[in-house]
Design goal:
9% strand; elongated; mainly alpha; 10 helices
């Protein structure tokens, strides 16, 4: 999206506003680098984690875009961690707001005001070399001074522009990357399922090989609840998993017992058992 300068200035003021009760040991924070995204690292909100990590990657990419020297993202983007009494650990993305070459120069500002008040011609020549091109001199023509002070226009970093775009995008849609969020949900669901299955296995004394075979049968069963209804980790019910795992275990050992019966009692050879099972 195209952001106007007023929107960026408002975002910069908000990002650089230091919390009244905050304690930091990095002079860059809320001075040159503003806070743009937060995530409670020890929380269980996958959406917040997805948005945070997606934003971090995009902001770093914007900082490094077109750079041939060392990675600019190391200087412009800080992935900070701080303690919090409520959430324990809080991750925050701090982004450098303005380019170093055009940081606000108070001395230039004072000189420009003095030049205007004295009606000095060509007041641009009173500015330092690194800031001459950063001032709006449209009203200064033919060497005649304007009646109003020149507006200083510091350049925003590409990283901060992208961070502002992402923050505004979240007002309309709560997910920055649907694919990333879906993958994290699926991984969390798989982990929850594995934990539930391991809990069901702890009540038996089966071998590791038997545990693996039964679990494989359980996961492949199309009739189980998790194949038809579950999509989030919070939806995994341990009691339901335990019941369905028990059913898969009963089927597994019944099949083993049937093969042993056919072999030892009915006299089928192992090859015949394989053919019989396939049939």
């Amino acid at each position: 999206m195209e952001l106007d300068r007023d929107t960026l200035k408002e975002a910069a003021e908000e990002a650089l506003t230091r919390p009244s009760d905050a304690m930091f040991y990095d002079d860059r924070l809320f001075t040159t680098h503003g806070a743009v995204f937060n995530w409670a690292e020890r929380g269980d909100d996958l959406l917040e984690e997805s948005n945070y990590r997606t934003a971090l990657d995009l902001i770093k990419s914007a900082a490094d875009d077109g750079r041939s020297d060392t990675e600019m993202s190391d200087e412009q983007v800080i992935d900070g961690t701080s303690g919090h009494w409520l959430v324990g650990s809080l991750r925050t993305i701090y982004v450098q707001v303005y380019e170093d070459s055009v940081m606000l120069c108070r001395e230039c500002d004072e000189v420009a005001l003095w030049a205007v008040s004295r009606k000095k011609y060509g007041r641009r020549r009173f500015l330092c070399e690194s800031h001459k091109e950063s001032w709006d001199c449209e009203t200064e023509r033919y060497g005649l001074p304007a009646l109003e002070p020149i507006e200083y226009r510091p350049k925003f970093t590409a990283a901060f522009v992208v961070a502002t775009e992402l923050a505004l995008a979240l007002r309309d849609y709560p997910i920055l990357d649907d694919s990333d969020y879906s993958e994290r949900e699926w991984e969390a669901f798989q982990d929850a399922m594995k934990e539930a299955v391991e809990n069901a296995q702890r009540y038996h004394y089966d071998t590791c090989e038997q545990d693996d075979r039964i679990a494989e049968r359980f996961y492949e069963d199309e009739s189980t609840t998790h194949r038809n209804q579950w999509c989030r980790s919070d939806d995994v019910c341990w009691s339901t998993v335990s019941e369905e795992y028990e059913a898969a275990r009963d089927e597994y050992f019944l099949e083993l017992a049937t093969e042993v019966y056919r072999w030892n009692v009915l006299g089928y050879s192992p090859d015949q058992l394989g053919l019989f099972a396939a049939a």
